[in-house]
Design brief:
By secondary structure, the chain is mostly beta strands. It is about 10% helix and about 45% strand.
Length: about 160
């Protein structure tokens, strides 16, 4: 089952160009003796269109019996911090606003998204994390910004 999910996730990643997050670490926020603990997970992904920018994402991961069967619904709490980790260059022109990361927060209807926005006037890339649901999303969100050197023009689509 996990292998099928991994193959499906990899295939969608190749088609969509959306980043894949690597686990950095986690801390438990509850103690469940026989089932997985609730956790705060820290992950990192590289912006697929901007070399030299990595985003660190922390988010809640629900444990308990539902987590064993992949049925747990994660809370909408998340945070993002994007940083310049090398020389910035653009792989392709970027949209004024586009999704750079997305992952399920429940088995069907809830997703965590990271959206990149371009503030061309100030030469800044802005990253927003939020969670949506099919019926009712959450207003909880977090924001970070990465300045681009003044000698680099941000290539935008359109």
């Amino acid at each position: 089952m996990k292998a099928l999910a991994a193959v499906t996730g990899l295939a969608s990643l190749l088609v969509s160009g959306i980043a894949y997050a690597e686990d950095i670490g986690s801390v438990s926020t509850s103690l469940n003796l026989l089932t997985p603990n609730d956790q705060i997970v820290v992950e990192v992904f590289d912006d697929p269109a901007v070399k030299g920018v990595s985003c660190y994402l922390s988010r809640a991961r629900t444990g308990g019996a539902a987590a064993i069967f992949g049925m747990a619904e994660d809370k909408s709490d998340s945070s993002v911090a994007c940083r310049q980790v090398g020389p910035i260059s653009f792989v392709r022109p970027v949209a004024q606003q586009e999704q750079v990361f997305s992952e399920h927060a429940s088995i069907l209807f809830k997703r965590t998204h990271v959206i990149r926005m371009v503030d061309k006037k100030r030469g800044v890339l802005v990253y927003l994390v939020y969670t949506d649901e099919l019926i009712d999303g959450s207003p909880k969100n977090a924001l970070t910004a990465v300045p681009v050197s003044s000698d680099i023009t941000i290539p935008t689509k359109g």
